[in-house]
Amino acid sequence: MYNNDIMTLYTVNYTEIGGTMKGRIENKLGTVMIDPEVIAMFAGTTAIESFGIVGMAAVSMKDGLVKLLKRESLTHGINVKIDEENLITLDFHVIVSYGVSIAAVADNLVNSVKYKVEEFAGMKIKQINIFVDGVRVID
Predict the structure, then answer these.
(1) DSSP state of 70
(2) pTM (predicted TM-score)
(3) Assigned domain for 132 exists
(4) Domain contains 13
(5) CB contact at 8 A, 14 and 22
(6) CA-CA distance, 82 to 50, in Å (whole number)?
(7) CATH number, domain containing residue 72
(8) How many domains does the chain have?
(9) In contact, 17 and 35? CB cutoff 8 Å
(10) I need a labelling partner for 108 at 20 to 30 A (CA). Which of 17, 65, 99, 126 fits?
């Protein structure tokens, strides 16, 4: 599967810039830095396409209310951490559809996000945590 003429092996490292861990992919031509915000946006877009997910949630610390985030604000419901070994940990705060199995929705979300984010970023997922912050009835 590996061909020296066509494909280059990548070494993936991490770096800390301005207090934020960023993914880093290096090859003989240069370096690619991946901001956690980019991973959060891609993961959020993938998550809301998953069965049973109504959207991402934001919890107001002031009054404890949960609100459904608009598509432009998806990253506020996702926390991305990249550790020293360049492994990604994702925390999702979601609102699920009423009447669906939360376990089935969580399994589907984990499987689709893990596959798509690893393919997109070229980095491995260490852990995906799902916090169900609300339930909504969908027409």
Answers:
(1) P
(2) 0.75
(3) yes
(4) no
(5) yes
(6) 23
(7) 3.30.70.1350
(8) 1
(9) no
(10) 65
Q: What are phi and psi of 69, to 5 degrees?
A: -85, 145
Gyration radius from the chain CA atoms = 17
Of 80, 97, 13, 87, the C-alpha closest to 43 is 80
Q: Compute CA distances 85 → 13, 24, 82, whole Å.
A: 7, 11, 8
Distance CA 39, CA 113 (A): 11
Domain of 124 in residue numbering reads as 36-136
82 pLDDT tier (thresholds 50, 70, 90)? very high
Q: How many CB atoms lie within 10 A of CB 60?
A: 9
Question: DSSP H helical segments within 74-130, as ranges?
Answer: 102-121
Give the amino acid at 65: L
Whether residue 27 contacts residue 10, with contact meaning beta carbons closer than 8 Å, is answered with yes
**How far, in Å, are 103, 104, 116 from residue 111 at the CA level?**
12, 11, 9
Please report the pLDDT score of residue 105 as a whole number: 95
Helix boundaries (H) for 55-137 = 102-121
Is 15 contained in some domain? no
Task: State whether residue 80 is helix, strand or coil.
Answer: strand
